[in-house]
Please model this.
Amino acid sequence: MLDILHPNISNINKNNIDINLSEEKIKINIRGKNKEFFTKVGKILSIILPSESNTSSSNENYDVLWLSPDEWMIYFDENKNSNIFDQLYKDISSLNFGSITDVSSQLICINIKGENIFELLSSGSPFNFEKFKNNVGSSTQTIVNHIDVILHHKSKNNVNLFVRRSFSEHLYEWLVDSSNFV
Amino acid sequence: MSKLEDYLQTEWPELDVYLTSVTDHYSTASICGPNSKKILNKLFPNLDLSDENFPHMSFKEDKLENINCRIMRISFTGELSYEINIESKYGHSLWKMCIEAGKEFNLTPYGTETMHLLRAEKGFIIVGQDTDGTMTPSDLQMDWIVSKKKYDFIGKRSLYRSDTIREDRKQLVGLLTDDPKEILEEGAQIVSDVKSKPIDMLGHVTSSYFSPNLNKSIALAVVRSGKTMKGQKLIIPMENKNINVTVSDTIFLDKENKRLNA
Model:
C-alpha cells in the first residue's frame, strides 16, 4: 500500500484555541435537482439533504453541508463507510440523475475549537459570524486570509474548516500566527 | 473553471452538466525522455504500452499498489512522455516510486525552466506568453486544431471576420540569430529597417533561449505577415547594438516527431 502524505499541520493550542488536522475524512461533492436524485441520496445515506441555504444535516454517520441550491458536500470518517462513494456514483452519476465527485484529497479538513475561534476567524474574514456562532449546524462558504474556505459549525465553539489542499499549510500557518493576537 | 461556468450559464444553459473542481484532488508526475516507456513499464507491468495500444494523445487507467491512476501519453517537452495522475495524498509516494524505478536509467528531476526550453525547441507555445488575446489558431500556424467539419462552434464567426483573415496580422515565427551565441531578450521589438523614421515595428520576441541540444540561440516571435517571411532577415534593435536575425520555422528540433514517438 502506498504511503499517505498529509499537509504538514500539527496540533496546537493557543489562547483557548485548538487547531488540529482532521483527516482521514471522505468528502463527496453531490449535485442534482430531480426527484430521483433526492430519492437515491436519501435511501443511500438515510439523510435528508438540507434545502435551506448555509445549513447542514447530520446523522451518526454523515454530515451534509448545503453549498448551493443544487449542490451539497458530504463528509465522514474514512473508516465508517468507504464504499459510499461507489454506491452514490453507481446509483446517481452513472444513471445521469446527478453528479457525484470525490473531493477527499481536494479539500483538507482543519478542526478549530475553543472559546475564541470566532474572533480568530473574524480577524481574517469579511463574513459576519454573529448568527453563525449562535447556530450549531450552520455552514458557510467564505474567505479567510484571502483563501476560499467552507466552514461547518459542528458543535458549540467547534468548527470544521475545509480548504483546498494547496492552500492548507499556508492557511494553517496564518491560523497559528493569528491565534496569538485574539 | 470560471470560464467553463460562464459558458455553461450563458451559452449552453440547456445542457444538463455540472462542473466540480478536482484540481487539488490529483497530483501529477510527468516522466519524459527516451526511457520513459521503460520506467512506466516498471511501475505498471500489466499495462500494454505498445504504440498500437497506447498511442500519443491517449490515456489509460491502471492501479499502482491498488490505488487508481490515470496515465496519459502526452508531451509538453517534445520527448516521449507520460503523465500519471494519482490522488494527491499519494503524490509523494508516486514521486518516490518514479525516482526509484528510474534509477537504472539515470532519471533526474527537471524544473520549469528546463521544461520551457524543451518546449520552445519543439515549437510548443505557452498561451499568454507566445500569444495574446488577439491571436487566432491561424496566426499561430495551428490551423489544424480547428475543426473544418463542425457546422458551428463558439468563436467560428470570429475566425472568418475581415480582420482575422488579414494576411498582414502578427503571426508566430521562429527566429535564429546570425550570431548563434547571441540570446535575444524576450519582449524585444522586431524591425526590418532601422533607418526609416519612424521605425516600423513588425512584432516582438515572445520566447528566447539558448538551446544546448542545437548549440545555438533560438527564439519564438510574433511578426506581421510572419508566415510569408521564412528566410527573411530582420533586425532586433537594442540599446547599444542591432541584432540580425533570420525568420525560421517555429519547430527547431525533431520536426519528424522521432523523439515524441521514440
Summary: The longest strand of chain B covers residues 201-211.
